[in-house]
User: Which sequence fits this backbone?
């Protein structure tokens, strides 16, 4: 079976690991958000691609929840001493090895999708990673006074505490899906939407011209997993992103935001947490098949079970 | 007093540290070779500038003889795992912090001399470092079959064992001295030539259009310190460089190669090791004032004494 997943970073990484463990003989392709990417002191950082790569490689730091396990920060200490970079954004040494490699290959003219294929070939990940686009589409956040901050600055430095007026995916209108993205959507037997940030992760992927239409035309069912459990974001500060676009922080509201595929939206089905089971009738009424299961991905086992639940819902959808 | 020193890397670094310790109230400027510089995986490496900076900052690894003290190589391990860079050329993590900073500033359009001023401002070095040129003049080595290797590859990978047919300073004819170089030569009270490689360190500096003429016109005496002691190079494999240009590995032959200033050459005076005292009459006959003293820079104290001996010889020259 061919499974294609739209994914952001950390939450998506856990979901993909669960999916790989649950469906080891299936062909899994992740279409990954690159809106958080940026150039920093000449290095191209791709947080979502790297979170997924490290997690699937078993090289991620489970304790901390991001980055490489056994990481050190000696290079960043030097950058700080020289006064370059963002003092509030610390890159690990092993992680910098990835960034130097990626930046070097990009400068040699290798597109990000090919760079990603090369980087990920180091480990047997069990999932093919494709950036949603090879173009540099970076999410910026418009705050009071009209200033636009890079999403990383708003998220990491300000911890999403500055009210966001709008999210701007710079250059998105001129971007194109990376090679393989449209094929992965068209050829899929199941399309899953990972429990990632609906605005800046999944939303950015959907904003790339051509992807929404491919999803609408896909023969596979599209099944999403709610990133909201019992009225709060599972990871981080997604509520600050949702409120900026006028969407309530609830499993139901996010599903309505994505929309029912039968009404021109994204979803055939939507998986919510047990605590949000009350939303099931409303979801069904909105034309979205739904089920309520435990959504917390506490460890590989619960993540694999969630993936199985998503696949099961997909089998009944459409 | 204003002292200007033409310098290569490790040997020059020790000499400069000795000079700073011997003449702490003098204004010391080092004009530094950049022919060993290169781009590697998108990072601009400047071995001589960094050797000097680290040594004067007290951050160098005395044991190993190069690089930063307490260095680790985690980033290089990653680059190797991803299959980029030169597997035989390992950069330390702290050192990579310097390279990322330099490369980032260069890409922002800051010339190398200004980048160097910014990097060195981190520590009270007691010496102003100026790259000989802001232009990318990289030394290549022509070997059998006509192939040209970057100097670093010939030196580090092949340990200078491939017979060198010629040294080519690429782009040198179009290069210009960095801002401050000609002034440092013209305004100096004493000009010293560090015991650095006469071919690829000092030779590269002298090859930059305008520098030789400035030295010839300078009012200060030019005093060199022999990098050859008793028929062998003090550091590394300089003999392989000398033989490629048909110069014997001896203190006398190197002085003759530089030439007496009175005959259109570089030197007013030449400091040789005690073991090479037999060369003194021939040096004098060639129009080069000379003295024989202990040249080995075993530690800061012997380096400072050598610097004092060079300054003393300068006081008697011209």
Assistant:
């Amino acid at each position: 079976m061919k499974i294609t997943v739209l994914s952001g970073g950390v939450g998506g990484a856990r979901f993909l690991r669960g999916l790989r463990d649950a469906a080891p003989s299936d062909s899994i392709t992740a279409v990954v958000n690159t809106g958080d990417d940026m150039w920093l002191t000449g290095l191209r950082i791709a947080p979502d691609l790297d979170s997924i790569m490290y997690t699937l490689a078993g090289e991620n730091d489970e304790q901390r929840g991001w980055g490489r396990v056994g990481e050190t920060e000696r290079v960043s200490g030097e950058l700080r001493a020289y006064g370059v970079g963002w003092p509030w954004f610390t890159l690990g040494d092993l992680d910098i090895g990835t960034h130097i490699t990626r930046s070097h290959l990009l400068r040699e003219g290798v597109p990000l999708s090919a760079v990603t294929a090369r980087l990920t070939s180091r480990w047997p990940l069990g999932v093919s990673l494709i950036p949603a686009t090879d173009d540099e589409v970076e999410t910026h956040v418009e705050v009071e006074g009209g200033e636009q901050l890079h999403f990383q600055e708003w998220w990491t430095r300000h911890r999403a505490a500055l009210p966001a007026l709008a999210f701007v995916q710079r250059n998105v209108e001129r971007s194109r899906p990376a090679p393989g993205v449209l094929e992965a959507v068209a050829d899929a037997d199941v399309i899953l939407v990972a429990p990632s940030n609906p605005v800046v992760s999944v939303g950015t992927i959907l904003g790339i011209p051509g992807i929404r239409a491919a999803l609408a035309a896909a023969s596979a069912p599209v099944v999403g997993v709610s990133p909201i459990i019992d009225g709060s974001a599972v990871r981080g500060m997604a509520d600050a992103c949702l409120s900026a676009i006028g969407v309530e922080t609830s499993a139901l509201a996010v599903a309505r935001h994505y929309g029912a595929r039968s009404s021109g939206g994204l979803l055939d089905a939507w998986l919510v947490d047990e605590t949000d089971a009350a939303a099931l009738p409303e979801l069904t009424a909105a034309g979205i098949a739904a089920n309520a299961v435990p959504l917390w991905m506490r460890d590989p086992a619960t993540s694999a079970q969630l993936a199985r639940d998503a696949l099961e819902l997909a089998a009944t959808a459409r």
